[in-house]
Amino acid sequence: MKILFVEDDTSFANALLISLRARGNEVKHVSTGKSAIVAFANAKFDVVILDLGLSDMDGTEVLKAIRSKANTPVLVLSARMGEVSKVEALDLGADDYVTKPFGFGEFLARLRAAHRRGSPGPINQILKIGELQFNLAQKEITSQAKPTPKLTPTEWSLLEVLALENSRIVPREELLRRVWGEAFINEYDYLRVYVSQLRRKLEVDPAEPAYLLTEPGIGYRLIAEVVG
Ligand code: CA
């Protein structure tokens, strides 16, 4: 990935830079908001990692400047606690938000997810779930045996988000945000309803799910085979 990394804390930045570069990423590091805006205007990046607490301006100003130009995924870093700045950053178009301190493994997973969401076009994947094959790009289901179910756009969207995370547990709030939007992150009932609808369509026994699994109190994950 080609990454623009905006962070004024030198020792923190250096540690993260070493780890990111060691994994083959091409990283441009800048330490001010002003230089971030200039760098973003002069090159194309796959993803931006943006610290909110910068010395010359608020990181949200950088986020606004980026969003006025492009839909490049932005992963916000912050030492700030509390929901206000988080919601503010997401409202301004951040794709995800990580509060310092964080584990590098989790950070990398979020970075990859942000990058994938920024990839243009529908995802080109064929999933096999039991007897059914789901073509995510064509929104088509094929089946050898039983009658082929039909999914609504929201069900397709939910399936796609879970499929993109490839058997990782996706927290409820993240699913709500990615499928419905930021305003819905507490609407757990939406998820319960849609998960049970999806289960009725893709599980052999919806009461004993084998593919769309609940992680109690956390979220859901999809166990599917990628066949194309
Ligand atoms: Ca900082």
Describe the protein in words:
This protein is an alpha/beta fold and 228 residues long. The protein has two domains: 2-118, Rossmann fold, CATH 3.40.50; 126-226, Arc Repressor Mutant, subunit A (Orthogonal Bundle), CATH 1.10.10. Helix content is 40%, strand content 21%. The strands form three sheets. Strands 2-1-3-4-5 form a five-stranded parallel beta sheet, with helices on both faces. The longest helix has 15 residues, at 104-118. The radius of gyration is 19 Å and the shape is elongated. The protein starts with a strand and ends with a strand. Bound molecules: calcium ion. Calcium ion (CA) binds next to loops.
User: Which fold does the CATH topology of the largest domain refer to?
Assistant: Rossmann fold
Structural class: alpha/beta
**SSE string, helices as H and strands as E:** EHEHEHEHEHEEEHEHHEEE
Number of strands: 12
